[in-house]
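Lecture 7 notes: from sequence to structure.
We start with the chain below.
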Amino acid sequence: MQLPELESRCKFGAMNGNRANAWVEGTSADLVADALALGVKASPRMVTSWVEDGMLANPEPRKTSAHGSDPRVFSPEQRELFTRLLEARERSPLGRIPQRSLVRVVLYLWLIDDTVVLTPQARRAWRTHARATGQTTAVRRSENVRAIVEQLAHPSASLKQRRAAQLVLEEGERTGRIDVDRLTSVLTELYSPWPVQPGMPRIERALPGPFGPVPVQYHIAIWKARQQTIRRLRHEEIDELELDRVRAVYRPMWADYQARRPALATIGAGEFAAYFAEPDTMEGRAIEAVDAFVSTLAGELGLIEAASHAAETARLRLAR
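Predicted structure tokens for the same chain:
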């Protein structure tokens, strides 16, 4: 089996491995033995946990006698995947790569190839990915939200306006629930912190973007749509047929974007080059590709359109 050219220049190392090694199917015990040969502690329970989380596919039944079945076996592709992921994890200079990072690699394989990770496995991996999304410490969550607030805030925004936006964003990240009206109010004041003049329409600014001005409603709509998509993935509300359909939409779109990337980086005399900078590590490519699929899924499910309508409605109510 040949994993599709996933060599890396980072802590993940090369994922295509030594082709002289002929992989064969194996039982859970064989996978445990493979791990022990690498110096990694493993157990049948660990293998079962990886199957439950979508890191591995379900083993297949194998019947070789008339009086019973042999232990279930993993395909050669899955056996190699198990070994390569363990090797990558153990190579990390951080001591150990978090499982959420390895899950993204599994999803990346599903996005770009049809032979290693099949959709039933990917659906479980998406659930695992969605469950890990947003799960961080209160301190880290506060730091992330503060960075977002500073990115969106107009220099004239007061400390009170920044604090109000941060509290609402932190609550949304913590609970996964978004009050669009409230979010519109605090982010509009953060974005455009000028007092409304009697009898005059509110002055609202938009941040410059590579494809034109970006209003605050865009950020609200994308955030809400992605949150809803993650929730559906977390609860496995999106079936395999839908995942396959959206992947078929995603692949040519993503390939087109990759082809246009160098030209896009020159927009505005390179002013937005950072938007289109290509990750130079496999982990970075996996993160980017997985995030892009979530956005594509949100669009295909109609969640971005619905969130955009809700954000615009909230803006009009606020303007009255």
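Points to note: The CA atoms of residues 222 and 296 lie 11 Å apart. The chain is about 60% helix and 5% strand.
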